[in-house]
Amino acid sequence: MKLQFQKDWFAKSAEIEGVSEVGAGLPPNCHALEPLAREAISVLDTRIAFGQFVELWRRNTGWNPERLACEAGIETEEVLEIEHDPHYEPEPDAIFKLARVFDVPAQKLLELAGLVTNRTPQLREEAIRFAARSESISALTEPEKEAFEAFVATLNTEKA
Q1: Which of 80, 131, 153, 155 could disulfide-pair with 49, CB 3.0 to 4.6 Å?
Q2: What is 40-155's CATH superfamily?
């Protein structure tokens, strides 16, 4: 099942983003999102970003869903559900396995998947920016690749 995100979701995400420059991070003293907008970021929003991240990581590596599932030790159907259904709640074990393959902290992926209490508003904000800039196409564009690499760097930082 391929989920096509509604145009209004992307419009809302772009509105939350404001006029910030393209990138996965903002300068430390920049508060582009107002407090009410931060609260408006839901588990569904971060799951959309998580699914986009999984799909773009896989495409960036040149793998199909079956290869990612094999490398992570999870079912192919789970990879597809994560990538395309933001209502799907993956098992924590699958998140730990994906984190190992992606070489990113599992705690942050658990947060993006909505499996732990959100503790880092900046990570949620960056996830929304990332998802709003990512478009499902067969190959990554240069801006997508840059946004993807910057988001991976954000996931690997201690503060986010």
Answers
A1: 131
A2: lambda repressor-like DNA-binding domains (1.10.260.40)
